[in-house]
Each structure stands twice: as C-alpha cells, then as structure tokens.
Amino acid sequence: MSNYRRGQQGFTLVEMLVVCAIAVILIGLGAPVLTSFKSNTVSQGIYSVSDTLEQARSYAMSMNTYVYVGVLQDSTASPTGSMIIGVIASNDSTQIFSANNPSLNQTSGTYKAINKLLKIPNIQTVSLPANSTTSGNARQVVPNSYKLGDSTFAQSATPYSFAIGTYQFTNTTGPTSIQGVTSAGILQIDPQGVVSEVGGNAAPFFEVGLKPVYGNQSNYAAIQVAGLSGAVRIYRP
Q1: 224 lies in a domain?
Q2: Degrees to nearest 5, angle at CA 105 with 100 and 110
Q3: What are phi and psi of 161, to 5 degrees?
Q4: How many domains are contained in the chain?
Q5: Which range marks the domain in which residue 217 is found?
Q6: Domain for residue 31, yes or no?
Q7: Does residue 73 lie within any of the structural domains?
Q8: Quick check: bond before 32 cis, omega within 30?
Q9: Per-residue pLDDT of the chain (237 residues; tens, 9 = 90+)
C-alpha cells in the first residue's frame, strides 16, 4: 500500500529542481555553439559548396551520367546577396549540351534537378588573388578563366544555360534573363568523375572563391576542385 501512495505523489520538489538545473546547464552549453555556427557564414558556405561538389561527382559516377553544377549570385534574394547552387543530371546518360542546344528549357525533358536548390545567405562569389595564401597550405595558382567568380570564366565559350525554378544558371558572368541575378558559372562532371567546363574543356583545378557580403572582407575562403580526380580542397586565411 505504501508503494502505491508513493507513486501517486509524483516527483518531489528536490527532484524537480535537479532536473531544471540540468536543463539550464545544457542550454548554456549549447547556445554558444549555435550562435557560432549561425554567425560564421563563410564557414557554413564553404562546407555546403564542397559537400555539393562531392555529392554531384558521386552521383555522376554511380549513375553513369553527366552532372552539371551551377553557381550564381542572387542580388535580389532575401537576404540580399544569397549564393545559389543548382545541380542537374542528364536523363539519358549523355552530354546534354551542344552548340545547337546551348540553353536547356525546363520542359525539354533532357535533364532533371537531382537535389533542392541550395541557398547560402550573405555570401558572394569572388575571384581571389593568387597571393591570398591560407592556413600555411600552398594554394594552387588557378588562372582567372578557371575561377567561377571571375568575369573571364568560360568567356570564350558558348553561353550554355539551364533553369531550375526561376533561376537561370549560365557559364558566363553578367546579367541573365532574371533581373538582378548574375551568374558565376557551370561545371560539368562526366561519368568518370572528370570535372571540366561545359563542353569538356579540362583544367588542373577550378576554384570557387567566397567572401561575406557584409562584415570582415578578409574572411574569405577558396574551394578548389581538381579536374581529373575531382578531389575538393578548402583553403582559409
């Protein structure tokens, strides 16, 4: 009978105070981590971009198809300056772009988006100078024409493009058909995992440079992807 009465009484005041104290301690420990991750936009951006590149290459090789990664800067997005990444794949495992078919219409049926659009707020794509060494690691020198954030990237190539939703990705920089949106470039990944420009112009390395739209402009990062192996490396100051 005494055990039954004890069960009806529930928790004692001391037990409830102990539980509340533990909860307060856990919240106090977790809050700085959440704040740090949310405020460090560049760190969030570089890992999002590098993960996307690696996943796109894995998809191309596992599905034996061509995959295209498009990066653009959306100056009209909220918050202003969002970086947008879109990834598409060929539906029939063939190279879907050609000189006669440079712009892929969404209703063409030749490709499909293989993940949701990735939006990274308050980040801009930039062309970083070659002397911006990082973390003691020797950063590979990449010509401007192979930097997705540079105006000379794929400048002499046909302006291939594809659409996902309202966003138009193109391999030449400058305004697109969507007002206020400027594009940074498109990378092609073939079924063997080789990374190149659209059309197959290979290079030892391609680079995506990132900087915050606001705040400390020296807080940059470089993401390099090797053309032949597809290996992705991250460089920080």
Answers
A1: yes
A2: 75
A3: -155, 155
A4: 1
A5: 40-235
A6: no
A7: yes
A8: no
A9: 445 444 455 667 666 776 676 665 544 443 333 222 333 578 888 888 999 999 999 999 999 999 999 998 876 655 567 888 999 999 999 999 888 888 888 888 899 999 889 888 888 888 888 765 554 567 888 888 898 888 888 877 788 899 998 888 988 766 555 555 667 789 999 999 999 988 777 889 999 988 888 777 678 889 999 999 999 998 887
